[in-house]
Structure formats: C-alpha cells, structure tokens
Amino acid sequence: MRLHDFPRAALGHFPTPICRLEAISSLINTQVYIKRDDLSGLGLGGNKTRVLEFLLGDAQAKGAQLVFTTGTPQSNHAMLTAAAAGKCGMQTVLLLKKRGSTDCVGNQILNRMMHTEIRWIDTDDYEEIYAEMDLLGEAMGKPYYKIPCGGSNALGTLGYVDCAREISQQGFRPSHIICAEGSGGTAAGLTLGAQMFLPGAQVHAMSICSEPFAQIVPALMRGAAALLGEDGPENPKPPSQRQMQGEGFGVLSPEGRAAAEQMARLEGLFLDPCFTAKAFAGLLQMAEEGAFTPDDRVLFYHSGGAGGIFA
Ligand SMILES: Cc1ncc(COP(=O)(O)O)c(C=O)c1O
C-alpha cells in the first residue's frame, strides 16, 4: 500500500516548521536547523502524534472502542495516546510500569486531567503486559486495540517515514538528521524515509536507554518497508547509533543538562531531560569530533517531551 493510502486519524498540525538555529550554527560552525515536532499540535506536542495518526486510524478502521498502551510513569507516548484516543472518541487504559516515581507530576498531571484510567503493572516483561491487555480487554467486553510501548511497530514507524516525506516536500535537503532513540520507531522511520525522500541525508540515532537497537531498528525498518510493498526500499541501511543514556533512563546527564541550557539560553527553546536534551548533547559531541563541515545542513529533530520537564 502507498503511504497516503493507510487509514489515518487526523490528530496533528502538519507540516511542523523547520527553523534555522542562528546562534547554535555560529557556535559549532555548521548550518543547524530544527524540525519542530514539539509543535505537532496535540497535547504538548511531540513525535508520537505522527505514530498515533497511523495506529488510531487502524484502530478506527477495525472498530475499536478501547485502546491499551504501556510505558513508564512519565511516558510521553502513553499520555499522548490517551489524548489522541479521547479525541477520537475511544476509551484508553494505560498499563504503566511501576519503574521510577509514580507521583502525580509531569505527564501524570495531564493523565489525571483527562481522567485516564491507569493500571500499575509490577513487571518489565512486555509479553506479560500484552497478555494482561488481552485479559482486561476480554473482561471489559469492548472491541480493543493494543499499542506497543512507544507505538513502535511497523505501522507506527510509517509516521516518521511520512515525516521524511514532509521534510522533502518543505524543500529542505539535510545532510544529517539527529534524533533521540527510546523505542526505536523514530530512528527507524526517519532512516527509511530519508532513503526514500531525502537522498544524501544520514540519520544519527542518540540512544537514551540500553535496548539492543542494532537489532530493533533494522527489524522495524524491514517491517515498515514490507508494509509499503513496492515503494519500500530493499535492504535499507540502518542509522548510526550513539549511546547517550548516561547514568540511566530518565536521569539527566551532565552533557544533557549543558546542552538543554545552551538551547534555552541561545535559542529560547526547551528540551526535555529524558530524550531531546541527550539527543542534542549527541549532536554537540559530533560537532566537537569534526563530524560536520561548515556547509553541512544538520537537522535536529525536536521530538517534544515537554511534560517531562515538570517531572
Ligand atoms: C519526547 C520523546 N522523544 C523521543 C522519543 C523516542 O522515540 P522512539 O520511542 O520512537 O525511539 C520519545 C519516546 O517516547 C519521546 O517521548
């Protein structure tokens, strides 16, 4: 099927702007731009709106009335799923892992405002969590739809393939694209999409946790390419990977803090502590290592996460 033939829920405001970062460009002596997916429209913005347009479009086409997803207590994806499903007239139940603080701060405040039903799950094992979704769905007696952690499956990945198409349609030709990597869909979709729509662009994925992305991302790319059939490139090349987690998932690293402060002071833009601060720190590290020429057009993908700033 072609990208524009998949059923989609209209959730976001697209295209999101691409803006030049003047002060950062002077600072690191290359041409730095930002793709403002933090302004994607739904909730506080963020990358997951693109994924949810495809996944909830599929859920609606299948007649679902109830949506399940999972994540950590501060999951941006889980909060945005509740916002998106509510807008589509569907009920949401979040099965959130008890890992970390479950306090009513950050995204939990937003979940509470939406009256989102939360079940706290005391396991990290996704198979157990997905089995629990089936049990709950049967017990609740409504047609239900399961969304994996981060929305990162083959269909969700198409959201970011479409983002690469959007960048190309905006007339922008990046030499490098830098994004955060948490469950892998963003990196997989942007890389696949770049090979389809942005020839010459290299994607660099900044890992903010220690999942085996060298396997996860190529598998997502193959799955998304298979959904696109003839349009999907054969043997798509994976992105470069850089480990930027620091001390742990969701723990702001010293480099991440410095990078977020630099972006705030020089450009008046805010990065979140879990994903985008660490991704931008990765971009600054690459610049320091001489990875970019003065003429390169380096596109930083701002994937949102504002709720996390207040957690
Ligand atoms: C703000 C933000 N940026 C980046 C990511 C990483 O995206 P992905 O899970 O597709 O790797 C996430 C994931 O939840 C996120 O919330």
Protein described:
The protein is an alpha/beta fold. The protein has 2 domains: 203 residues, Rossmann fold; 104 residues, Rossmann fold. Helix content is 42%, strand content 17%. A 6-stranded mixed beta sheet has the order 1-2-10-7-8-9, sandwiched between helices. It has a 4-stranded parallel beta sheet with strand order 5-4-3-6, sandwiched between helices. It is globular, with a radius of gyration of 18 Å. It starts with 17 loop residues before the first strand and ends with a helix. Bound molecules: pyridoxal-5'-phosphate (PLP). The site of pyridoxal-5'-phosphate has 20 residues, from α3, β7 and α7.
Q: How many domains would you count in the coordinates?
A: 2
Computed structural class: alpha/beta
Q: Give me the Rg, rounded.
A: 18 Å
Number of helices: 11
- Count all strands and give the number: 10
- What is the CATH level 1 assignment of the largest domain? Alpha Beta
How are the strands ordered across the major sheet?
1-2-10-7-8-9
Average residue-wise pLDDT = 97
